[in-house]
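One-letter codes give the sequence; backbone shape is given numerically. An example follows:

. . .
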Amino acid sequence: MVVDITALQLARDLRVGDGVTALVEPTLTLVNRVLATATALVEDYAPDAPTAIQVEAVIRLAGYLFDAPPGASQRFTNPMHDSGAQSLLARYRVVRAHRLEEPDDDDSE
């Protein structure tokens, strides 16, 4: 699924824009950066989640990242968990596992 939210929509949800009026610098750059980061994290964490769930998770995560101070302290250690995005996506999480290979008989000598 592809997260379908624009910077203007996110700006409205972050309460830094009205969702209609074009954003100005430096707000535009910050909103785009937070949107790109949140989208990448959400799509990596749960790529098969429904679009509506992914969009809500992106909004929550972006809001958390937007409010986090630069060089955030230890209390900002897990944005996915602390923002609530992880709870939304938990049902759709991709768990990765690797198959263990049998050792070659040639290696046992």
About this structure: DSSP finds five helices and no strands in the chain.
